[in-house]
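Quality-control log, excerpt.
Job 1 of 2 completed; input and output follow.
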Amino acid sequence: MKKIIITLLAGCLVFNAATGQKITPFKAGDRVAFVGNSITDGGHYHSYIWLYYMTHFPNMRITCFNTGIGGDAIGQIADRFDDDVLSKKPTVLTLSWGMNDSGYFEWYRADAQDVFDKRMVNSYKTYDLVADKLRKRPEIRTILIGGSPYDETTKFTTKNIWPHKSAALASIIVHQEQSAKDNHWGFIDFYHPMTEINIRGQVKDSTFSLTPNDRVHPDNDGHLVMAYLFLKAQGLDNKPVADISINAQSKKVSRAVNCQVSNISGSADSVAFNYLANSLPYPIDTIPRGWGNHKKQADALKLVPFAKEFNQELLAVKGLKSGNYNLMMDGELMGNWSDKQFADGIDLAEITATPEYQQAIQIRELNEERWDIERRLRMYVWMEYDFLKGKNMLYKDNNAAMDSVKKYALKDMFVNGNKDNFMRARYKSIRDAWQKEINVLTDEIYAINKPQTHRITIVNTK
């Protein structure tokens, strides 16, 4: 236990250092390509990051691209880098790699460390080729991500234990961080803060993990932790949705941060005013999303202070006489609080019934639909690069390619898992239609994400 506590304390220091990193926030018009393996491909962290920008900066449109492929090591990323990544014309590029480069079953071999060391000689050479392409494209702002951890210590299962893989992955992240420094690129460390959260959770519950399905892939809560670390590194924490303080008796506004308050009326028994925020609250998801996931995005609120640092919509009303008061928005009851609670402040972002939260939920659901369609396109790219290219059929998409997919699907679980999607995606007209759907969904998000003026009434219930 003493060893665990010492490790935990060390992890806390790393966590604080990691969350202290700073990178430039996105700006209007940015095209952000998130490059990686299956954790990017099938994960949500990039869509959560974009959802924050969609709601907190509704008038600043950006575009984010999932350019991950499941199973990719750096060699495969390099192989598709021009056609799959740079073709998106990114102005910002994040790169995460290493989970697959650090190996799996070979860690049971007696010479596992030698095998890993020899492999990494080639991996680092290949990474240097990618880095050189980025050095030649200074117009692309590059951010390296030290990826999420492999959880070697959780007790939720006895499977998927590959001794020393975690240390091997950590060594890759050290190399990535040094590369970011050498190239004056941004760097964000997911590995150490998430490992610290795992250790902290496992002190209380040995089965806890941010990667509870296979020790490798974060669940939805883990992806919100990743989004939290990314947004915090961008310096976007402690920027409230809104922060209002009003005196009911004087009808004066003493504070109005990121919002406008007007047309105040009332007395010590009641107060009413118009409220227009510049942002919308972040709509936390309470449903498990994605294949094989069991955790909800909301579960991460117990692990990191996302709500406090990124999603506060504070309303304080002072000068109310003693009693209980109904809070109404656009004539609809939101809840009942005492004069003291109003004086201390109510967090409107915790009330999912508010009209602005309901507006944000629509944006979340449209974004999820966009994410789901984009995943079909990523599954198609997986089939092209991780299977058909090896058969000299890259982008052939003809009957021979389909026959090859059907043949190998009988013995390859990954080909089989992508077969049905490829049966549709091999037709350009289908892919074009999917992309048009994504464009329509994104356009709709940016059409409906503008905050509206609401009438707030606070009245004594007597």
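Job 2 of 2 completed; input and output follow.
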Amino acid sequence: MTHTPCATTPITHLLYLHGFRSSPQSMKARKMAEWVARQAPHVVFWCPQLPPSPRQAMEMVAEGTAHWPTGRMAVMGSSLGGFYANWVAEQLAVAAHGPAVLINPAVHPARDLARYIGDQTLWHAPDEHFYFDPAYVDELRTLQTDQPSQPARYQVWAATGDEVLDWREMQARYQSCQLHIVPGSDHALSDFDRHLPRMLAHLGLQPAS
């Protein structure tokens, strides 16, 4: 099967957004950072440590990408980061022209994260604590978007073995997009390497010649 790149112009900037309680040390974020450094060093890669406040997180992203070139930016996100990536692709003009890859994206994070209000730790740094405030649930509701305005720009991966989120909700929301249902696997998409070539093709990322 041939996968036509979504990007119509070469991507020069790639934003990766991690999930809830995650960090730039997540498996997928590290693998993307390593791939870009090794295969496409001309591409600017940014995976910020997002604050627990969704509003502050998106303000950070908006500020950090404000001077990125329109049409040459792509965004990836996993879990809550997939929800954020959806928002970025819809709300930030600089991103609306480029492709987006969502991995097991959260569809209703305000509903799902309401039970996590209180003290939390990071997966990759269990000694680091943060407080998930009730106000953050309302901030997530504010960030909720409608159906993707340009479905062809979205490539979505939903694992049926996701132990955290319901892949059928992802399927319902993103059925008009380039949707890949992955039999089995898990929330982390542990078989990420197997799917990476298709993701790179969608992003229009090619190794430097």
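Post-run check on job 2. The two ends are 24 Å apart (CA to CA).
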